[in-house]
Structure formats: C-alpha cells, structure tokens
Amino acid sequence: MSNEVLVTCELHGAGARRTMVLRLNRPKQLNALNSELMDQLGAALLAADGDAAVGCIVLTGSDKAFAAGADIAAMARKTCAEAMAEPFITRNWETIRQVRKPVIAAVAGFALGGGCELAMMCDFIIAADTAKFGQPEIKIGIIPGAGGTQRLPRAVGKSKAMDMVLTARMMDAAEAERAGLVSRVVAADKLMEEVLAAAEAINVLSPASVALAKACVNKSFQGGLDDGVDYERRVFHSLFATEDQKEGMAAFLEKRKPEWRLR
Ligand code: CAA
Asked: Which of 92, 136, 167, 199 has the fewest CB neighbours in a 10 Å radius?
C-alpha cells in the first residue's frame, strides 16, 4: 500500500453549503482506476457525504482523461477465483451509490471502460467538448464490469449501447449530448466554472428536497414504472411534513428568497 494521494479534495464556494471537488490523480496512467484509488475515492465520497458543510460533490479528472478505465496492468493476471473472492470491482466501486448528496461528473478527455462507468454512476455528467466516452473492454477480451452494460442502454438506448459495447468505438461529446449520456457540453476551458455554477445552484436549495429528488430519480431506474411512481408519490407527500416545504412555498408566494431551516 503506497502513501500516494490518488484522489485530491478541494472545497469550493463560500456559502453555508460548499462544493467538494474530488479529482482523480494518476496522470501518468490517464487516471486508470486501481484498487488503492477506488479505496481513496470511496473514503472521500463518504467523508463529503457526511460533512454538513458540503452541498454537492464534483468528481473530475485531468484535461486529458477523466479516467481511461480500470487499471489493466493491475488486473491482467487476475484469476477468476481471485476476482470473485476479492470481490473485484464490487468491493470498492459501488461506494458512490451510498452517497445521498448530488455527485456531478465533470468529464474532459477520455472516459473509457470503468471511467465511463464511473461517470455514469454519478448523478449527471457535464462534459468538456474534448470528452470521449467508450466501453472498449471487448478489445481486451472482457466486457464492461462496473455496470456499463446496464447503465449505458438506460442512458443512450439499446442500439447505441450495443454499438459502443460491441464495436468499442468512442463517442465524442456532441454525440454523447445528443444521445442523452451527458446533460450539457461546454468549452474545455470553462468546464470547472460551469460545473461549479451548477453545483452552487443546488447548494442553495433545501438539502432534504435535493437528497429526496435524487433518490426518486434513481428509483426510476431500479424497478418498474409503477413502483417508481408510487415511491415518488410517497416521498412527495412526506415532504409536506417539513418546514422547508412551508418556507419554500411561502417565499415563492411572498416573492422573497427562502431561508432554509434544514427541518
Ligand atoms: N490501465 C492501465 N494503464 C493505462 C490505461 C488503463 N486502462 N489506459 C492508459 N494507460 C496507461 C498506458 O499504458 C500508458 O502507460 P505508459 O506510459 O507506462 O506506457 C499511459 O497510460 C498513457 O497511455 P497511452 O500511451 O496509451 O496514451 P494514448 O493517448 O496513446 O491513448 C487511450 C489513450 C486511447 C486512452 C489508451 O491509453 C487506451 O486505449 N487505454 C485503455 C482503454 C481501455 O481499454 N479501458 C478499459 C479498461 S478495462 C475496464 O475498465 C473494465 C471495467 O469495466 C471495470
């Protein structure tokens, strides 16, 4: 185990709730995702989620690569038994799903294999015009192993997902936006400015409604439509028990800014 910092943490903004930027930091390997990095990322995500001063979390990489995939050198010699016993990918790649706060992926350059999958695990993706997305695992004799075969079709539809998973071709930022994989594309030199502005727009909102809105949207991907709509309706009704709902609606009607009470 090395002492290398593979994920850096920077707090941005000045309000009551700020933005935690987590930056993948293995530049020489194009941020290839190894177990140490995923352990550090998991710990940083949970720490930010538990910090009341943090509103949103941003996950980003370098100008050249968000992440070029799981670390091929680290897994090249792994046996099936080792992968199952570890359990490889599962042990420390799913932590992000425990996070209740919004996680925005800021993607520039390559987001390939596990990098594309990690970006898709975030709540939404804002891409630089330099971004390239792909699931090229088939070229090295495997398949996507961190949810790519499940999340990509939900994001871009079956035909394009099959195309990407089977041919391994990359999708540029414009195509990714057309396909619905990313929410917006911005100039590369404006990426962090735009992402931090999006995070700030969320940071000033009621944390309860933000966390529950996120949970409801995620629910739409987890079961059938009826289950999702029922779940949404229950959560919607329960928000009428909070002071923030009263305050938010009163402020709108009184044409003033709401003062969230976190209750
Ligand atoms: N794992 C380990 N090392 C990687 C890597 C990866 N996924 N991607 C890049 N690197 C390393 C390269 O080996 C190289 O290291 P050296 O300088 O020591 O040789 C360094 O990063 C720079 O890479 P390149 O010289 O290849 O850079 P390039 O600009 O010519 O090409 C690239 C960039 C197209 C992204 C190319 O590096 C590439 O194809 N990378 C592999 C992409 C891939 O197959 N990803 C899927 C991995 S499997 C996976 O992710 C499984 C899963 O679902 C969880």
From this structure: 167
